[in-house]
Structure formats: C-alpha cells, structure tokens
Write a structure and sequence with these properties.
Tetracycline Repressor, domain 2, 75% helix, 2 domains, Arc Repressor Mutant, subunit A
Amino acid sequence: MELPVNKHQMKRMQSYDAFIQAALQVIAEKGYMHTSIEDIATTAGYSKAAFYVHFKSKDDFLAAFTQNLIQEFIDRFLSSFILQEDWTASVRHGIRLFIELAERDQWCLIFFEFYQIALRDEEVRSKLQLHYANWARFLAELLDKISSRNGLRWQTDSHTIASLIMALLDGYNLQRNILSAPVDAQHIEEAVIRLLRAWVLPEASKEG
C-alpha cells in the first residue's frame, strides 16, 4: 500500500520533473558541455537554489538525468509494444516503435551527447552499459517469445541476435541525424526480417 503524498512532496516531485524536462530542451539545443545549471533552472522556471535541493552538482544531475531518460524510453516501449500473431509483424512493430520513440523530444541528440560523455565519465558509461545490457536481455526474451509462439528455432543464441539488431538500429539513428539522405526505415525492417529468417532452422521455419 502506497503512502499518501503531501503537498511538500508533490511540489518537490514537480520541481524535479521540471528540471529533467528543461534539461531535455536545453541540452538538445546547446549540448551538455555548454549547458549551465542556471540554463536548466531558468528554463524549468525555478531558482538555482531549488536545483541544489535535488542535485549536489551538475555531474550529480547528469547521472540522475541519464537514468531517468533511459528508464522513460524503456517504459514507453514496454507500455506500447504488442506481440502480434505473425512473427514478422511483431518485429516490424517493434522496430517502428523504437524509431518513433527515438524521434521524440530529440532523444537521439541527447543520447549522442551521452555517448561522448561516456568516453570520459565512468558513471555515465556504466549507466549506458547497463542500458544496453537491459535492452539486449529484453530483446532476447522477446525473440524467444516470438520463436516459441511461432514454432521457430534460432541457429544462434537470441542474445547475439538481439545485439546485432541493436547495432543496426544505432547505426540507423546515427545516419538519420547526420546524412541528408539516410537509409529508409523500411529497409531496416527488411534487413532485420532477412537476418532473422537466415537464422531460423529450416525444419522449424514458418514463413511470415
């Protein structure tokens, strides 16, 4: 049973969320290195003193911000994904949902910032490594559900397949934000479907 939240706790939660949302906007526009605590506080509509109620420093904020963003992405995906009857439809649905979420609120730009910071910040790198480990495990479990539901057997372990799919989607997101004519998302879907079909054991194969 959850305890009731009083007005003080509610205001504290609201200000915390405001700082997180403000950082999404400011970091996407200016980059983390050029974003100050004052920038975040002003955009959130609070004082710097209010910022320090929640966070000890900018680095402390970055750790919380990273964790919050990653968890929000995962939660949105899990709440929207629906396993389809046809396995290829499940795969296409998952890829489209992933790309759709990555396009929201300039998340790709934020994640690219994280990648740069992770090269020199051990805490951020650890959070990103945990993020990838969680995604790989989730995708592997999803592939196992798809194979079980459709009578499929993979020629290699599902975790390896999941890691390759993640690498393909990461490359797509990078190209989409840099190149003027990136690969079409539909081609990514087809590539993943062909990849999976190539790893289905012949005696268990069912065309989707």
